[in-house]
Amino acid sequence: MSRQRNNKSDKKASKKVRNLIFSIFLLVVSVGVSYIYFTEQKFNNVIYPQVKIEGMDFSGKTKEEAIKILRDNFGDAILQKKVNIKALDRNYSISFSELNAKFSIIETVDEALAYGKTSNIISKFKLIKSPNPKEFNLKFTYNQKPLENLVKSIEKDINKKPQDATISFTGEKFQVSEDVEGSELDSDKLKKEILSSINGKISSDINIQAPIKTLKPKVTAASLKQVNTRIASYSTDFSSSSEARSTNIRVATASINGKVLMPGESFSFNEVVGERTKERGYKEAGVIINQQLDSGLGGGICQVSSTLYNALLSGNIKTTERIHHTFPSSYVGMGLDATVDWGNIDLKFKNTFDYPIYLEGYTKNKVVYFNIYSNSELAKRTYTISTEVYDKIEPTIKYIDDPTMPEGKTEVVKKPSTGYRVKVYRNIFENGRFISKELISNDYYVPINGITKRGTKKSS
């Protein structure tokens, strides 16, 4: 009986112990959960431990606190920074505030504040008690447009075309103006250098030397000063010309006067003289059209091209394009003429010398003159031109009977012209001594057959 009572008593005691242990367990768990919960809640509106932004620890900082710290250290400081550019003797600068430069402070703080907040409570607790270092970096942005405008402004100030030296002749001596070097900003290179230098580092200003090219003039004063001697000249008379033809000769000659050819450069009569129009001062005068003398704008300028051509021959200047007339001209010998026609026939030559060539052209007392000047070294050689007419072709005359004209009366419809074959030579002398003779051209003037009407009408 007593044994049964003891067993019941033991069971009751054991149950009490278990209940006590369970209660203690529940209390411990409750305390632990509460601790975890309240610990996590403490960081609900602040940044977790060991979370850094740009190397600065923001553990436990609120959003407002973090934003203020970052603005103090980055936001305001970056606006004081400048980009300084030196271009030749000028200085240019632009501040980061003008570029609307800024850091993603608010966005980055939001990221740091949200870090770990979407995890479960245990994960959050672990991040608080055993944190893994986490770092965020600010994003830096700016507006490129003000920089592009600055580069354009620098370009406008710096870009200068080089100025060629010029030469003029007063009739007694040459006057040479100085050449001036130009400059050109390498805009693309400058832009790349600026953009590669701009960053979010809070440091000293950015200093850049603008890349600038020096532009050399095509014609220098030193080269033009080599022109000191007349090497050739030629003139032809146009005293029998009409006023219109004389005007055309004067206008064309004036457009050539003062032309300079540097070594290697070529000359085109048509390009230099230009189209023969009324607006440019040309008048109607006699020209050769379809083997006949007719009237047209610019009539007479073939005398200008022929006069210039003979000066070229006397100066040993290389002619690259030249065509003679249909029949011989009255103002120069056979084989010595050079016809021109806008858009069709040209007179061209090239400066093959090591020195510049200066062309002087003018008219006086109805004579057209061309003088060619260059360096005195070229004057050591002189040249004379000779011609050889080695064939003469007589034209035929075709007669057409005209019953409307009185018998014995004639009328020339087409004037005949004798044909010739002629060779032109250049005789070369050095210091007055004959050296050699060279063939320049072999021209053929085609004979022009004539046509004459004769009357056959009998008198009543």
Note down, in words, how this protein is organized.
With 460 residues, the chain is α+β, with helices and mostly antiparallel strands. It folds into three domains: 17-81 and 102-139, no CATH class; 145-222, no CATH class; 226-457, no CATH class. It has ten helices and 27 strands. The protein has helices spanning 2-42, 63-79, 105-114, 121-129, 145-158, 187-197, 221-224, 243-256, 269-273, 301-314, and strands spanning 51-53, 56-57, 82-87, 90-95, 102-103, 134-136, 140-141, 167-169, 174-176, 182-185, 206-209, 212-215, 229-237, 260-261, 266-268, 284-289, 292-297, 318-321, 348-350, 357-364, 367-374, 381-393, 397-406, 410-414, 419-430, 433-445, 450-457. Helix 1 (2-42) crosses helix 4 (121-129), helix 2 (63-79) packs antiparallel against helix 3 (105-114) and helix 5 (145-158) packs antiparallel against helix 6. The N and C termini lie far apart (197 Å). The model has no long low-confidence stretch (mean pLDDT 88).
Oligomer: single chain
Rg calc: 50 Å
The total number of structural domains is 3
Whole-number average pLDDT?
A: 88
Low-confidence stretches: none
Number of helices: 10
Largest sheet strand order? 13-21-20-14
Major beta sheet, specifics?
4 strands, antiparallel
Give the N-to-C terminal Cα separation. 197 Å
**Helicity range:** 25-40%
Query: Which class of secondary structure composition applies to the elements?
Result: alpha+beta
Form type:
elongated
Work out the strand percent: 25-35%
Number of strands: 27
Pfam families: G5, PG_binding_4, VanW
Domain G5: 379-458
Keywords: Membrane, Signal, Transmembrane, Transmembrane helix
Transmembrane segments: 20-38
